[in-house]
Design brief:
With 973 residues, the chain is an alpha+beta fold. Helix content is 43%, strand content 14%. Strands 7-6-5-8-11-13-12-14-15 form a nine-stranded mixed β-sheet, with helices on both faces. It is globular.
Length: 973
């Protein structure tokens, strides 16, 4: 009906009206009264629609007498409006999702989280649930995370129960609609439906129930069919809810429904592979098939497998034995694991409804074997002493038997993609880094360590789920893994040990790359638009991994599917593995690519030294974690920021600077503590190379997890002194398939992690400064420095070339190589996947020419060249407003307009289009300054001139580059 927020008599409601608390109420509840018992304000959908004063607080407070009642009729009218409010009966699916999301958010933040923090009560039953989940299910679970998990579980437990209810529905009836075999959910709703809730929780849970009771759930779910969203409306509704409820959490967990065409393609392919490769004539309906989805979500994959298995059985053997088939085979041989309670609740209900539609009603002692468990945790839950939560222990033990002992033939699903996984424990570390049960680990290749300084991508959840599946199949000796995952593992160099390991376990590997990677700006081979099958930015691939036991070597097959999303869906709906145009490929050491690479004629490239071997000491750029706080346009701006930020209350600072939630390695309190401990010294303000030709300012302490998240002091401390560094990127395809590799630049300052598009560039300083601990007031000698070049290279060049080149000259030579278009095009396939390798000529003359050209490039890119004295571009226009607004390039006139009045002229098309680090330099510079005044046109003019001369120098480099490779120095590795 509504919510009344009552304040102490006489409270100033104007102040309350602007508070965050009331804002939350108004955004959650459509019918709210705010009162101090003298004044009543009525709000509908967050808007004030009526207000009445019925007495004077002054009379009671000052005169100590009972106030005279005023506006009695108007008060009755206002209250009548309040009590007459009814929820609409015609909720759309989207509107219902929004209303549920708002209330679930309120339940999470204002009720569950608050009760858990209430030390006076200890949280009661709620605290017991939290402690049990933290101890036995999700290690490290915070109160905030539990509040989220628990609130979603309540809402979706109620939602799922409502789909089974007939007639009137309320909170207390929900318990009756939850099957007794789903013990954990019954435990939760035994408290919600039958227990003594706090008044606050009772109000909001009843409000959620009222919304569900007012909605025609079945009609709303039918809406998804009519809109063409497919056969699983509950899943689509859940995603809509999550997107409204907490989109950041949704993305962080990788919670995205798997499109039905993808699910059906995978399930059909597995069905056919079981027949073709494993001689199981009934495919998924065969009695020998055991199936597991280890990251089941709402059971999309098992549900599709059940439908196909039942259809196969009925078509071959008739309807008569169908119920027995479901009871004795599906319910006994199909398994699923899920960690989150909300999809676990939905999944159980969905399978129950599905089986009923197939003619089988679950009996009192039946259950589908979906277990609430962390697949990537092997320690089982012991007996739980908390009343009502023994089911958590029982569930863990049942799941543990499947994980450790049950032979599984088919493992399929869509594991989460989450970058750095939260599932880091002793078991997963052992699983990834050791040869468990004979399955080669992912951190070695060809018997040697990967030697990766940044191997974090091997900690992605999807990698761990693939490894778990590989381990299960490897241990049994036969089976299929069929998953859709991030496609990064098929060609990223970091995953080469993983690829070799998979090839050793599985004797047939089918990789269907669905592409759609917007992070890599993927297009079709013809250059047209390529879309993802998910609403995510990472490209994806379907992997079908077979261990038949019939072969000793692995056969690898690859296929690609490009184009628009709907076209991909249509193709997936019509095909399976046997009708796909797979091509056999031969993955070879050292990369073992699982996609086609045309490198046979240029394998000599692999004999050259990698750039990070040439410069042994290196790291990626510094990571701030909060650019809006730590990076400024001027020294004064960053100084003011540092002084103010360090003095504020942490929560006030968070709001003022819009810093969002803390993360593991960057917290407001850590940042403030770091600044204060640095004594707020203005000497710590330094320039930072933020983007190509874009210098800004920051306050640098060098303390990790401080003002900067990862300041990389081991390398950046050398850039605080006179120095020069190459910045080189890895995986050139991040710049786009239609653009050649351009991930090379130079800097004489500390470097931001995102100097290049998508970031992660390697910073390779030329000099390393020795610690100057002995420096005193009377000892002003500059600290000593040493050259950061491989001794092997320095010595070999000294003995091979006539002039014993200086360290600077070696760097200039390398820079010229990296700017050769001949080099970039020839070795494009290698540059797509790893750091560049450098050929060193034996010719002194060629070396000198290349070094001279490289020197010119370095001076131009640092904007220190005398060639900039005669600029090729001019700044023109008249007017008062020099604010950068809508930027526009006119190719015919060579003009770059920053607004309607001002422009740069003389900018050639190739200069305007020129890219460094995946950024279109001229456009990027203006884009980042939109809304700011063009303070120094000369800087932009110098950038344009430098790029124009860069293009000319690249032509000179390309003319001499073939001479470089005629006779190369060989380094014994």
């Amino acid at each position: 009906m509504g919510y009344i927020e009552a304040k102490t008599p006489g409270t100033n409601l104007d102040q309350v009206e602007t508070s965050e608390q009331l804002d939350r109420y108004l955004n959650t509840f459509p019918n709210v009264i705010l009162t101090n018992f003298y004044e009543f304000r009525l709000y509908r959908e967050g808007q004030l629609i009526d207000h009445i004063t019925i007495g004077r607080h002054f009379t009671a407070r000052q005169l100590k007498t009972t106030p005279t009642v005023e506006n009695a009729d108007e008060f009755e009218t206002l209250m009548a409006k309040f009590f007459a409010f009814k929820l609409p009966k015609t909720f759309t699916a989207e509107k219902l999702a929004v209303e549920l999301a708002k209330r679930t958010r309120f339940l999470r933040d204002q009720v569950v989280a608050e009760e858990l923090r209430d030390e006076s009560t200890g949280g009661g039953d709620l605290s017991g649930f939290y402690n049990a989940f933290k101890r036995y299910l999700i290690a490290g679970l915070t109160q905030e995370q539990f509040a989220d998990l628990y609130s979603q579980t309540i809402t979706y437990g109620l939602f799922a129960a409502k789909t089974r209810a007939e007639g009137h529905f309320n909170r207390k009836l929900a318990f009756d609609y939850i099957p007794p075999t789903i013990g954990i959910l019954r435990d939760v709703f035994r408290f919600i439906s039958l227990g003594e809730l706090s008044p606050q929780m009772e109000v909001i849970v009843d409000d959620i129930t009222a919304v569900l009771n007012a909605a025609d759930i079945n009609s709303i779910l039918d809406q998804y069919y009519k809109e063409g969203k497919g056969e699983d409306p509950i899943v689509h509704f859940y995603e809509t809810f999550l997107n409204e409820y907490d989109p950041e959490t949704r993305e962080r967990r990788g919670v995205y429904y798997t499109p039905e065409p993808v699910v059906k393609y995978i399930v059909r392919s597995v069905h056919q592979l079981l027949k073709d490769k494993f001689d199981l004539r009934d495919g998924l309906a065969d009695p020998k098939v055991t199936l597991l989805d280890p990251a089941a979500g709402t059971l999309t994959f098992p549900a599709e497998a059940i439908k196909l298995a039942v259809a196969e059985y009925v078509e071959k053997y008739g309807e008569g034995g169908k119920k027995g088939f479901i009871r004795d085979q599906i319910l006994k041989n199909y398994y699923a694991f899920e960690l989150m309670m909300a999809p676990y609740a939905i999944g159980h209900m969905k399978i129950s409804i599905l089986l009923e539609s197939l003619g089988y009603k679950l009996q009192a002692d039946d259950r589908f074997q979906l277990y609430l468990t962390n697949t990537l945790e092997m320690e089982e839950i012991d007996q739980i002493g908390i009343p009502g939560l023994q089911s958590l222990s029982d569930e863990s033990k049942l799941a543990g038997k499947v994980k450790k002992d049950k032979p599984i033939l088919v493992i399929m699903g869509n594991p989460p993609y989450s970058g750095m996984s939260a599932n880091k424990n002793d078991w997963t570390e052992e699983l990834l880094k050791t040869d468990v049960d004979g399955a080669q680990n992912y951190y070695t290749v060809d018997g040697n360590s990967l030697d990766e300084k940044n191997s974090k991508w091997l900690q992605d959840d999807y990698v761990k789920f693939l490894r778990f599946a590989q381990w299960k199949i490897h241990k049994v000796g036969r089976g299929i893994v069929a998953m859709i995952t991030n496609h990064g593992f098929v060609d990223n160099p970091t995953f080469r040990g993983m690829r070799q390991s998979l090839m050793k376990t599985f004797d047939e590997i089918y990789i269907l790359d669905l592409h759609g990677n917007s992070l890599k700006r993927e297009t079709t081979p013809e250059g047209s638009k390529d879309e993802n099958v998910f609403d995510i930015r990472q490209g994806v691939t379907i992997s079908l991994l077979l261990k038949t036991g019939a072969k000793e070597t692995s056969s690898v097959f690859n296929a690609n599917l490009y184009g628009l999303r709907e076209d991909k869906y249509q193709w997936l709906n019509k095909n399976n593995y046997s009708t796909c145009d797979y091509q056999r490929i031969e993955p070879n050491s050292p990369y073992y690519f699982l996609i086609q690479r045309s490198v046979e004629n240029i394998l000599h490239y692999l004999d050259w030294m990698k750039i990070n071997e040439v410069f042994p000491e290196n790291s990626v750029g510094m990571f701030t974690a909060r650019d809006r706080l730590t990076i400024s346009w001027t020294e004064n701006e960053i100084w003011n920021t540092v002084q103010n930020f360090s003095s504020y209350d942490p929560e006030l600072a968070r709001r003022i600077y819009n810093l969002g939630k803390d993360v593991r390695d960057w917290k407001v309190k850590f940042a403030q503590k770091d600044l204060l401990e640095s004594s707020l010294d203005r000497e710590n303000i330094i320039p930072i190379h933020y983007r190509p030709f874009d210098i800004r300012y920051t306050y640098y302490t060098g303390v990790s997890r401080g003002f900067h998240c990862m300041p990389r002091p081991q390398i950046m401390k050398h850039m605080l002194k006179e120095n020069i560094a190459l910045t080189v990127g890895r995986q050139g395809k991040v710049v786009g398939e239609s653009t050649i590799w351009n991930l090379a630049f130079v800097s004489d300052k500390v470097v931001d992690l995102n100097m290049f598009y998508r970031g992660g560039e390697l910073v390779l300083p030329l000099y390393l400064y020795l610690d100057d601990k002995n420096r005193t007031l009377f000892n002003h000698k500059e600290p000593e420095k040493q050259v950061n070049l491989s001794n092997k290279i320095v010595e070999k060049l000294a003995t091979t070339l006539n002039n014993n080149p200086s360290s600077e000259k070696i760097l200039f030579y390398i820079y010229a190589v990296l700017y050769s278009n001949v080099y970039r095009v020839t070795y494009d396939e290698f540059l797509k996947v790893d750091y560049p390798r450098i050929p060193f000529t034996t010719s002194t003359d060629v070396f000198n020419i290349m070094a001279d050209l490289g020197h010119r490039l370095v001076d131009l890119h640092l904007l220190q060249s005398t060639e900039l004295d005669q600029p090729t571009v001019k700044f023109q226009g008249q007017g008062q407003d020099m604010t950068i607004g809508r930027r526009r390039y006119d190719e015919e006139t060579g003009r770059v307009f920053i607004n309607k009045d001002y422009y740069f002229e003389g900018v050639k098309p190739e200069v305007w289009a020129y890219q460094i680090g995946g950024y279109q330099v001229m456009d990027k510079y203006l884009k980042d300054r939109k809304g700011r005044r063009m303070e120094d046109p000369r800087h932009y003019i110098h950038i344009a001139t430098a790029l124009e001369k860069t293009i000319d120098i690249q032509a000179e480099i390309d003319a001499i580059y073939p001479e470089v490779e005629k006779d190369l120095i060989e380094f014994l590795m």
